[in-house]
Amino acid sequence: MTKITKKSFGTLTDGTKVSLFELKNSSGAYVEIIDFGGAIRSIVVPDRDGNLGDIALGYDDAKGYEKQDKYIGALIGRHGNRIEDASFKIGRRKYTLAKNDGRNSLHGGIKGFDKVMWKAEVDGESLVLKYLSKDGEEGFPGNLSVTVKYRFSDDNELSIDYAAECDQDTVCNLTNHCYFNLNGQGSGDILDHEMKICASHFTVGNSECLPTGYVAKVEGTPLDFTEPHVIGERINDKHEQLLFGHGYDHNFCPDGEGFRLMAEVYSEKTGRTMQVYSDLPGIQFYSGNALNSLPPAGKGGRIINRREGLCLETQFYPNALKHRNFAQPILKKGEKYRHVTVYRFGTK
After folding, report:
1. Alpha carbon distance 4, 143 (integer Å)
2. Under a CB-based contact definition with an 8 Å cutoff, are residues 251 and 214 in contact?
3. Alpha carbon distance 225, 101 (integer Å)
4. What is 3-347's CATH number, 3.40.50.1820, 3.40.50.720, 3.90.25.10, 2.70.98.10?
5. Mean pLDDT throughout 145-160?
6. Residue 293's pLDDT band (boundaries 50, 70, 90)?
7. For position 68, what pLDDT does the model report?
8. Is a pLDDT exceeding 90 seen at residue 294?
């Protein structure tokens, strides 16, 4: 049985009050989520000895999330990841977005879903967050109504249930940008973590980390995680894809269809494990390459440094709007967007 409690988490610079919700299960493990950006602030789960520890990067108050520019913990929308030339077409009509990643659009624009207040309510054992993205917001068409449900089970499964509908044809590609460190946040980098990604292919990126439309086999490359590899083992290889991403920042194409296991992470140091399940087409593995002496300071006033967290973002393929051979993140008027991602925590 999960108990959800609410408390104050400070204010934004304009005085808006932010709340924190704790989802605690029967074993005492818990997840903290705030209503600004819908961000996961903490994930506190046991190690192999039963000691609870926080494995999510985050901040001590609302202003930390307001000031940050690395999307730590936050919900991402309307479109997760990159859109080339910050523009796209639906039918014959072209839409222009803000360029916030060089010439491209990243993670929904200048003020994406990570920088808005979500309406939060408790529904039994679920925390329900709602947001209405109005027609023209960040250049996207239509009034998009979004509902995200967070649940944390007695089995230490964090599920994120995404739903949306719109009054016009629009773009919708929702994800979460939590940074994980199974050794515990503040413990150093994630290079000793063991990673497995259930994908025999990935989308090849260019120097801007934009998929070119080509899907290649991971076999014979440092992106082959079909068998477990320690992340630091090959991250500095002089391979073009790693040089482009300054490490891992790539979309993988998990094998199979529907709701399936996409990735597994293991820390030999703590014995913690994490499995990622989703019904989305892709998953982005990002090794935190840009977390270099990141202001503002993280939890406890400690600066978050490079590669101290990893992301596994379930998604439609990045730049899919430019490549019709990719599944399209187009939500038609009257249709319902519905996808589920589960992060399952355990030990071995």
Report:
1. 30
2. no
3. 28
4. 2.70.98.10
5. 98
6. confident
7. 96
8. no
Q: What distance in Å separates the CA atoms of residue 60 and residue 27, rounded to the nearest whole number? A: 24
- The share of the chain scoring above pLDDT 70, in percent, equals 100
Tokens encoding 250: 């790539």
The CA–CA distances, whole Å, from 16 to 76, 97, 130, 285, 292 equal 21, 27, 17, 34, 29
From the list 107, 177, 323, 339, the catalytic residue is 177
Q: In angstroms, how far is CA 333 from the centroid of its own chain?
A: 26
Domain boundaries, the chain: 3-347
Report the phi/psi class of residue 85: left, alpha or beta, with left for phi > 0 and alpha for psi in -120 to 50.
left
Instruction: Let me know how long the chain is.
Output: 348
Question: Taking every pair of C-alpha atoms in the chain, what is the biggest distance, in angstroms?
Answer: 59
List Cβ neighbours of 151 (8 Å cut-off, separation of 6 or more).
Answer: 2, 23, 125, 126, 127, 157, 158, 159, 161
SS3 track for the chain: CCEEEEEEEEECCCCCEEEEEEEECCCCCEEEEECECCCEEEEEEECCCCCEEECECCCCCHHHHHHCCCCCCCEECCECCEEHHHEEEECCEEEECCCCECCEEECCCCCCHHHCECEEEEECCEEEEEEEECCCHHHCCCCEEEEEEEEECCCCEEEEEEEEEECCCEECECEECCCECCCCCCCCCCCCCEEEECCCEEEEECCCCCEEEEEEECCCCCCCCCCCEEHHHCCCCCCHHHHHHCCCEEEEECCCCCCEEEEEEECCCCCEEEEEEECCCEEEEECCCCCCCECCCCHHHCCECCCCCEEEEEECCCCHHHCCCCCCCEECCCCCEEEEEEEEEEEC
Phi-psi region for residue 50, left (φ > 0), alpha (ψ -120 to 50) or beta? left
Structure confidence at residue 295 as a pLDDT band (50, 70, 90):
confident
**Annotated catalytic, 138?**
no
Residue 129 CA to residue 94 CA, distance in Å, equals 31
For residue 85, which phi and psi values (nearest 5 degrees)? 60, 15
State pTM to two decimals. Answer: 0.97
Active site includes 313? yes
